[in-house]
Design a protein that fits this description.
The protein has 3 domains: about 120 residues, no CATH class; about 100 residues, Helix Hairpins, CATH 1.10.287; about 150 residues, Rossmann fold (3-Layer(aba) Sandwich). About 60% of the residues lie in helices and about 5% in strands. α5 runs antiparallel to α7. It is elongated and about 85 Å long.
């Protein structure tokens, strides 16, 4: 495997770690600049003191958001890339506004991370998909926040402590979250009824949103912690077949391999893993393109690797990572598009089969009765993988 083929994986991992580092540095810089006097402020003459302190508070929040985006980058999400780029620009601006020597490393690291992410931006091409319940819960939460903000500002004459739109947002958040500092109070019956409605709707929407939005992450974390395969089972794996990812062909492939070899499926979706687990297949919920995952399933002692999802780009990344992890393992991939056969071989697959091409050829020749099915299958397989085209 040439070095150019390895750059996308290395670049992605480096970008994730740089984003985590930028996030941690933004949090630390913001906290230090809030709690201590400015050490060295070359821009202090031009930046108001209030702006410096505001940049410190918001910089801490930006750091936490960058840490969240790093997990999205690790999964190759397009939305995470866009959010990270915006947050990095914001982090640079906040570092300059803080105008402290402590913020200089933050600015430099954020700029380097931004440049790297732009350079490898094509690596982040996975869309984010929300279920109907997740979309409904998110819409309900934002709807309640908008309702409380607009209502509080419209009724500001009936509240003590609400004079601006920011005050209305503040009132809505602390009321809906049941924090209630007591610095904003209703002075009329109508205002009290409105505040009561914000409490009822806010607690309901917050609870629903947290339950629906965090459930997949919590389920995945528990699944990884407890393991659908025990640690003992993972440690005993040897001379096995690892199926990386899930697609339309996964279960038929597992049925064929069931009596031939010990098989482990790495599926990123907990619901899919649940179904496979109930069907009796060894499953592990994790990212099939992550090197730590490949270590957990002992790819170094595996007999073969199968990559047959519905996305050739995902398969290429899986093949590339598996080949880098174990240069000697046999890798078989399925190409959804015949044009991607050569690309998957260049990524490191020993054998690449196009099910569509194979099926159409068998059907056509069987229809005219030239040969038996077994002979046809052998012929097409030989045409798919000829000597010297292994990609090694």
């Amino acid at each position: 495997m040439d070095l150019a083929a390895r750059r996308p994986v290395v670049g992605t991992r480096l970008a994730v770690w740089m984003t985590i580092g930028t996030g941690l540095l933004s949090i630390a810089t913001g906290i230090v600049n809030i709690s201590t006097p400015i050490v060295f402020a070359p821009l202090a003459v031009y930046v108001p003191f209030a702006a410096e302190r505001t940049a410190g508070f918001t910089g801490t929040l930006t750091g936490f958001l960058l840490l969240a985006c790093a997990f999205g980058l690790r999964r190759g999400l397009r939305l995470a890339l866009g959010a990270t780029l915006l947050l990095l620009v914001l982090a640079v601006g906040q570092g300059l506004l803080q105008s402290s020597a402590l913020s200089f490393p933050l600015v430099v690291l954020a700029l380097l991370d931004f440049a790297l992410l732009v350079y490898i931006r094509r690596r982040f091409d996975r869309p984010v998909s929300f279920t109907t319940s997740q979309a409904a819960a998110t819409g309900a939460l934002f709807g309640v926040l908008c309702y409380g903000t607009v209502g509080a500002y419209a009724l500001r004459a009936q509240f003590v402590g609400v004079e601006s739109p920011l005050d209305a947002v503040y009132f809505t958040v602390i009321t809906a979250s049941t924090v209630g500092y007591g610095d904003v109070t209703a002075t009329t019956q109508g205002a009290r009824l409105f505040a009561l409605s914000v409490v009822l709707l806010g607690t309901s929407s917050f609870g629903l949103a947290l339950a629906v939005l965090l459930r997949p992450a919590l389920q995945t974390s528990l699944t990884r912690a407890l393991g659908r395969m025990t640690r003992t089972q993972l440690e005993q794996l040897e001379d096995h077949v690892v199926v990386l990812g899930y697609g339309d062909l996964t279960e038929p492939i597992l049925n064929e391999l069931d009596d031939l070899a010990v098989t482990v499926v790495v599926a990123p979706d907990p619901d899919v893993a649940d179904r496979l687990d109930r069907a009796g297949y060894r499953t592990l919920v994790d990212d099939p393109s992550d090197e730590e995952t490949l270590e957990r399933v002992h790819l170094d002692t595996a007999r073969a690797v199968v990559a047959a999802t519905n996305d050739d780009a995902d398969d290429a990344l899986v093949v590339l990572t598996a080949r880098q992890h174990n240069p000697d393992v046999t890798i078989v991939a399925a190409a959804s598009d015949q044009e991607n056969v050569a690309k998957l071989k260049r990524a490191g697959a020993n054998t690449v089969i196009s099910p569509a091409a194979l099926g159409s050829h068998l059907i056509a020749l069987s229809a005219i009765g030239q040969r038996g099915m077994e002979a046809l299958a052998a012929e097409v397989l030989e045409r798919t993988e000829r000597p010297g085209e292994s990609g090694q």
